[in-house]
Amino acid sequence: METKVVKLDAANIDSAKINEAAALVDAGGLVAFPTETVYGIACRVKIDSLAKLDNLKGRDHAKRYTLHIGQKSELDKYVPAIGLRAEKIIKNAWPGPLTIVFELDKKDIDKQQKNLEREVFEGLYKNNSLGIRCPDNPIAAMLLQTTSNPVVAPSANITGQPPAVDADQVLAQLSGQIELLLDTGPCRYKKSSTVVKIGKKGLEILRPGVYSRAELEALSQVKFLFVCTGNTCRSPMAEGIFRKYLAEKLQCKVDHLDKIGYKISSAGVIDNVGFPASTEAIAACAAKGIDIKAHKNKGLSKELIEESDFIFAMEQIHQEHIIALSPDAANRCLLLAGDEEIHDPIGHPQKFFNSCAERIEKAVKKRIGELVI
After folding, report:
1. Closest CA to 288 of 352, 248, 241, 326
2. Whole-structure pTM value
């Protein structure tokens, strides 16, 4: 077999040539194509094609390859429930040089087994997990969107040899063994994608690549913000209570939340800083085993709003203030207690603070129950 080489211009893609490549993949052929990291081998997820790929790569038949998708919206077909940190890193790093290994629970695995063809399910999932990549390359994206079958795409090399980062390197290892090579010149990064698994206990790098650990930690950190008037009563109580119940859900210590990618903070709409939480708020939290004595208040800023993924306001006036500072926050800024407001207990006896803390606790439990971790 002679490998056909098709040169393409990424700035002016010939769709007919992409259609030809997609048709070959759908017919069971192997097509090498560029990504922003290294060249890959596109292979449909069917038993015969995967066996052919295994033989070409010299790879163990029991192993699974990474699914490649042409756009982020395709992810839902393969992973029904996406955790907060995975959702955040997808938002920030896809399309891009990052492979994410998703762990599915039994309910979702059962769902996928029913929804997908048997050989697709068995060809993709192993040990309730699945690796997925969404490459940032227009040729790759168009090819993956054009194929009718799901596509895996390991690097275009023999196992144990360096990944190919240009067409000549692909041909040096695979000439005569693949049907087609889409040649757009050298890859942008010339190194493999980072492979990461994100679970309840944090982020685990399975293979180093383009992204560093520090970059991935920053890209995947989920930030919660609680807002009231002065940041001395309601929002610090909400922050402390939320920390307690989020740590329980994640089965970790409260002071480990930051380490595993969750940042919880609070602020007030009036511009004063450095004051502690009120004595009554401290007492109301202490009665629940929550220590907020170290809290110092801070004012709300546009920057704080824009970096937060979830913003919970105590009253509608706070919500309006937040949206006025940053209109783009409207879709992620909610009243903590749903349609109800949590009014300021300041100036009232301790029992009002205790009652306020109870309302906040009830609302927090509901909000945390809604989160997919």
Report:
1. 241
2. 0.91
